[in-house]
Amino acid sequence: MPNEVVLEAPLTINWAINNSCNFACRHCYSRGDTHEELPREVLLACLEKVAQAGVFSVNFGGGEPLLHPGILEIACHARSLGLRISMNSNGWLLDREMAGALRDAGFTKVGISIDSHIPKVHDRFRGVAGSHGRAVAALGDLAEAGIDTSISTVICRINNTAIDDLVAFAREQGARQLNFHNFKCSGLGLSHKDELDLTPEEWQEFYRRALAARDGEKGLDISLDDPIIALLGARDTGSLVKGSVCGKLSLNIKANGDMTPCGFIPIVIGNIVRDDLKQVWRDSAVLEKMRNKKPTGKCAGCGKYEDCLGGCSARALALTGDLNSPDPHCWA
């Protein structure tokens, strides 16, 4: 019996419209992707397929989406189809003029990646000197243009003990939301795992403190997208499902049109150019397995399994080769 009610189509598509990037982040999941990008006309037609399938929103990423020469046209087209559009960016190419253009194209929210309140720590992690200052300036330009902003922070060895500083920094920048993203072991993240990842016990301590900070915040929305916070009796307040949202609420589309459960799970389940989105969403054996996970190993005897459903499937796949294995970050 399914763990969740399956929607007819994903609520959200995370769409990496390009692979090109001007940064050299040490945890990047897509830097090794060398597939060709979809021609603009094909991409616009695929957006129509997505809208017709009943998708509510599209979040554009990459690579760095602002390096795509057609980003404004693509966004305008998506908005004309009734799609709610947002974006994740490193902020380097985002100035006052671009912020105004993004507003006019229909963007309601833009997330900027900032991994430390300390400029040199962020710059080293992202591989570009001066990137912290440009990211902070981007937040100001977006706010001035009337676009809601969020800060995306990848939690790892460089920042896991700086929760209070990160929250204070986000508040100072006027961000509406602070997203604490759990470190994944995909792409370069796997290569640098020993350097950047935390032990399960350190993840437990981080989440204890992060949940306390979230519960104490009034004006700033602190988002924790890790299913294993269920072990602490909590869940991501923005999530409508137990366990991971991937394949239940959201789907990932790569620059060449390949569909995967999420950006961190490199299993191709179809291609938006040639396949019917709703059929793939309904019939994919991979998605079915993710929606109906079975407790294995230590999960089989855990009283929290029905809430966390084994944790992050992407980490389990990367480190064990099996989507159904217990999350390697689990401290239980």
Automatic annotation (TrEMBL):
Pfam family, one: Radical_SAM
Keyword 4Fe-4S: yes
Ranges for domain Radical SAM core: 7-217
Name listed for the protein in its UniProt record: Radical SAM domain iron-sulfur cluster-binding oxidoreductase
Cofactor: [4Fe-4S] cluster
Keywords: 4Fe-4S, Iron, Iron-sulfur, Metal-binding, S-adenosyl-L-methionine
Highest rank taxon of the organism: Bacteria
GO molecular function, one term: metal ion binding
Protein species of origin: Geobacter metallireducens (strain ATCC 53774 / DSM 7210 / GS-15)
PANTHER family: PQQA PEPTIDE CYCLASE, RADICAL SAM DOMAIN PROTEIN
